[in-house]
Design goal:
Blueprint lengths: L1 E2 L2 E2 L16 H10 L30 H14 L3 E4 L9 E2 L8 H23 L3 E5 L33 E2 L8 E7 L22 E4 L19 E5 L1 H6 L11 H6 L2 E4 L10 E7 L2 H19 L1 E3 L2 E3 L2 H11 L10 E2 L12 E2 L2 E2 L2 E2 L9 H5 L1
Parallel strand pairs: 3-5, 5-7, 7-8
Antiparallel strand pairs: 1-2, 4-6, 9-11, 10-11, 12-13, 14-15, 16-17
Helix pairs in contact: 1-6, 2-3, 6-7
Length: about 375
């Protein structure tokens, strides 16, 4: 039996909360808070507690019901920070009244997504949850989005849609109180895939963070190397399904080509595997958890005690992150081209703003050391 979530492997077709058949969430979680235990790698906030709230499917979809329920649960449980490295399917952009090419039913569906997500995001903020989201990988200017050709990505055939910034949003990134995070490569250049904005003082982008960029380093030995991307934790079962790890747990030739790593310990924690696996990925999905880890550090260093432990108002977290972010100016001339990296003119991005706030980096690159001082 199969459904949208893939194979039905467990009772009632519900995966246990510690099973990840996709790998995306495990990679994100490792960047945020992988333990500093001498094995593998450390997350940005290695002493933070990770709470696994499943808002997505193994297939990669993030539908409105599970996402809004996850946000409500986070708020009611007293979580401090939520990472959202996704957009709510099936619409890349949800438009009030729909796009001109949408049906009336599709327009109503998008308005439901907007209303429900706005309510859930505001509710989480009211409970002192800092919300962090990936800015998106469409190399799009969110102030002037191009046509959407991928929506709906479930339930009906996608069609070309005209997107108007005045009434269309990508969610949760452009929702209320959300910190949108763009992606930088190792050189500090905006990753070619990362969204950005030409509305400098909008709230679409708040910060930039390392998200990896495989094509970074043109003209050097690092160009098109795995090490340009973000290394983080990976489920063994996912790597085995991809052919990167064999049934015995050995890295295959394909895995070596992809840069898969393995680390083992003689004394694993109770219930933990003796060996861990790690893979390289890139995306604003990889940038957002770096910012989420910094937000967690901010709460741990400056939060005040409450019945649920330490807490800090999201506005205070944002202010502290903005005050301590590393300024990162626009490229010379304000234009970033990617022709050397074999990208066409649709990737060319215009950067507007100042050194301390611009459309590529928001207030700057998140700074872990800065927020804990």
């Amino acid at each position: 039996m199969t459904d949208v979530d893939g194979e039905c492997e467990y009772t009632s077709c519900k995966d246990p909360n510690n099973v990840d058949d996709n790998g995306h969430g495990t990679h994100v979680a490792g960047t945020i808070a992988a333990a500093m235990n001498g094995m593998g790698l450390s997350g940005v906030a290695p002493k933070a507690t990770i709470v696994n709230i499943r808002g997505g499917q193994d297939s990669g979809y993030f539908f409105l019901g599970p996402v809004s329920n996850a946000l409500t649960y986070a708020a009611n449980t007293g979580l401090d920070v939520v990472n959202m490295s996704f957009y709510v399917d099936p619409w890349l952009y949800n438009c009030t009244g729909g796009a001109p090419e949408d049906t009336p039913a599709q327009a109503r569906e998008q308005e439901t997504v907007i209303a429900t997500m706005n309510r859930a995001l505001k509710y989480a903020t009211s409970k002192n949850v800092t919300l962090v989201a990936a800015l998106g990988n469409q190399h799009d200017d969110l102030a002037k989005p191009r046509q959407d050709v991928s929506s709906p990505d479930y339930g009906a055939e996608p069609h070309r849609r005209t997107i108007f910034n005045s009434r269309c949003v990508t969610l949760p990134t452009e929702g209320p109180n959300v910190l949108g995070i763009s992606s930088l490569g190792p050189s500090g250049t905006k990753s070619d895939f990362s969204n950005y904005t030409t509305e400098v003082y909008s709230t679409e982008i708040e910060f930039s963070a390392p998200g990896g960029w495989y094509r970074d380093g043109f003209g050097t030995a690092t160009y098109r190397t795995n090490e340009n991307m973000i290394l983080s934790s990976a489920p063994r079962r996912v790597l085995q399904a991809e052919g990167a790890v064999d049934p015995k747990g050995n890295i295959t030739p394909l895995g070596k080509e992809l840069g898969v790593k393995k680390a083992c310990t003689a004394n694993p924690a109770p219930g933990a595997d003796r060996c861990g696996f790690y893979q390289y990925l890139q995306g604003t999905s990889m940038a957002a958890p770096h910012a989420t880890g910094v937000a967690a550090l901010a709460v741990s260093a400056h939060g005040h005690k409450s019945a649920d432990g330490l807490t800090m108002k999201p506005g205070a977290v944002r202010w502290l992150m903005a005050q301590t972010a590393t300024d990162h100016a626009c490229p010379a001339g304000g234009v970033q081209e990617y022709f050397n990296e074999d990208r066409d003119e649709t990737y060319t991005a215009i950067c507007r703003g100042t050194t301390d706030r611009n459309g590529f980096n928001g207030f700057g690159i998140v700074n872990a050391n800065g927020v804990v001082r």
